Amino acid sequence: MTATALPHHPEAFSRSGIKVHLCRIRLASQPRLAGVKHLNRLENVLARAEWSDPSFAEGLLLDEAGHAISGTMANLFIVEGGSLLTPGLSHCGVAGVTRDRIMEAAAGQGMDCREDALTWQRLLDAQEVLLVNSVTGAWQVRECANRRWEPGGFTIRVREWLDEKED
Questions:
Q1: N or C: which end of the chain has fewer CB within 10 A?
Q2: Do residues 155 and 141 touch, judged by C-beta distance below 8 A?
Q3: Domain 14-166, what architecture?
Q4: Which is nearest to 47 in space by CA: 29, 74, 14, 65?
Q5: What is the Cα–Cα distance from 88 to 115, expressed in whole angstroms?
Q6: Whole-angstrom distance, CA of residue 156 vs CA of residue 152
């Protein structure tokens, strides 16, 4: 067992959004492990090693078919036409606790929130892109691969849901 302090992330990441590196490594399909939190996340470690530029707060991982799956340490959501979408995890990726909390909160608010295939083009066309995990909360992606997104209201709503659950 090891006990360490949680990593420090600038407040600006939550307030202003983050710039994200599009990782070259692709997540391999392994349906038996898909969605499971386990300690064999070598692909994520290798992907995180792709950049040293501090302007990138996180990396975006695609699968072998080019579908957006997750960050190197976070789950992915996009906003499309008023719906909150997250990739299905039947072939790869991790079903995070915060991802589940957001999906549950959206359902409780009567909001359309579902798993769906997120092609690279669909991600680029999204109104908002969010990366979430239990340590950082919800970060809005403001830039990835020369695509910029304006701040949006869904990220603020998701943060409010997460704050409500902590009370």
A1: N
A2: no
A3: Alpha-Beta Barrel (3.20)
A4: 74
A5: 5
A6: 7
Helix then strand count (H, E) for the chain reads: 5, 9
pTM, rounded to two decimals: 0.90
Q: Is 130 within 8 Å of 103 (Cβ atoms)?
A: no
pLDDT averaged over 10-residue windows placed end to end, the chain, 167 residues: 78 89 91 59 88 96 96 96 94 91 94 96 97 93 96 89 72
Tokens of 51: 């950049």
Instruction: Read off the tokens for 116.
Output: 């769906």
Q: Which two tokens stand for residue 71?
A: 């960050």
Domain spans of the chain, in order of start:
14-166
Pick from 7, 14, 3: nearest CA to 132? 14
